[in-house]
Design goal:
The chain has 217 residues and is mainly alpha-helical. The chain is built from nine helices and no strands. It starts with a helix and ends in a 10-residue tail after the last helix.
Length: 217
Amino acid sequence: MDRRALRAARRADASGSGPTLGEREPSRNPGATGAFALFGEVLMTGLLVTIAGLAIVTLPAALAAGIRHMRRYAAAEGSPYALFWQDVRKALPGGLVVGVAGVALTLLLLLDIDLANSGFLPGGAVIGVVGWAGLVAGAVALLTAAAAWSPDTGWRAAFRAVPAAVGADLTGALFLAATAVFVGVVTWMLVPLIIPALGSAVLAAVAIPGRRRRGAH
């Protein structure tokens, strides 16, 4: 093998896109082997999701499209940004219903938290904890459903799959809950940080279900 062919073989081996040089399996995410490139893609995906989700009620569709884009990128498939916008358009019809319901539920829970903090309600501390827990649980459900959404099955099937997905991987659900808290905290600290925060949430929704678990092959 000449030097040029050897370099090409090493690149293919490192990326997982071709035959391996040693006795090891190709990378499961060949498109995400470069840390700096992945960081840039996370930021770009966060920007796209932020733009598509500016109307708030469009955020579910934006998240679903962002997750599908990140999956394509990690798998080293074709991931042009035009496909992201195509997914946004396909996810919007049902996603708007999810968005409106999500906004209504969020406002209701925030009202409960505000009333709990006012001191006018008995057991206000407990109500406040329940309210915050409800917000986190809703965010986990949204991320899980957005990760399960596809143009073929739609949002109803995606939300029906949430209980089974959470039950099958409680640790993963806790990771997603931590991700949701992270997005909320950094956005509260500085609003522009919502861009990398949403990009990180998209990456988490892709990476957490696909991580290696103890006892799994």
